Amino acid sequence: MTTSRDFDGRTALVTGAASGIGAACARALTVRGAARLVLVDTDGGRLDALASELGCEVEAVQGSVADEALWDRLADQLGGLDHAIVNAGIGAGGLLSELSLAEWRRVMDVNLDGAFLTLRAAMRAMAENETGGSIVITSSTTGIKPVAGIGPYGVSKAAVSHMARIAALEGAERGIRVNAIAPGGVDTAIWESSEDFKRSVEKHGREATLKAMAKTTPSGRFASSDEIAGSILFMLSDAGSNVTGHVLVSDGGYTL
To answer: Measuring CA to CA, which residue among 70, 84, 88, 108 is closest to residue 19?
Structure first.
């Protein structure tokens, strides 16, 4: 099968790039012709390992997306930016009535404030391009369908979905498209933040744990990071040129 080279010569920014959906997007962009990637993650070791396997120019940046100073330092490196995947995020657990403000802020700091800072930096860079650019923000079905026990995560994801819509309106006249994707269950490392998940994996194994969790999904399974990356790259690419301000739900029917 011939792989499309629809990102030939393009420059893309990916946050949360060291694993999961972010890493899958970075690999797919390279396969499809991207010339230069700016990858951001707090896990420098994994980030360097990923960069070493990609077949294009890579700038690996270790740091938190919630650090405004990081984006100030990266401004020059984002010149000529064509695409951005605003993907960095962390999980959370606990009932709203039992959460501390510190835990609430910990999640919002990365998932919402960090997404805003990434989006702002990408839009500023793309405003300098004659042809604009395209951005996809990773949201979640928990921003659409309420799920008890993960309040700050769900609220942050509802917020970034709406932020994508507002950014799409503001960016349209400059040729900047902004969309979001709302995955359901995906087999990524974010589950490792759950103590219940880790206990189940220890007792039953990861595959059995994910299969049991997927019983709430009509399709009966969780998506892979590569599947979600494929949907992200469609919205990011020229094939999605008429799509902006959209939140694509990819959840195996979970929100039905």
So the answer is: 88
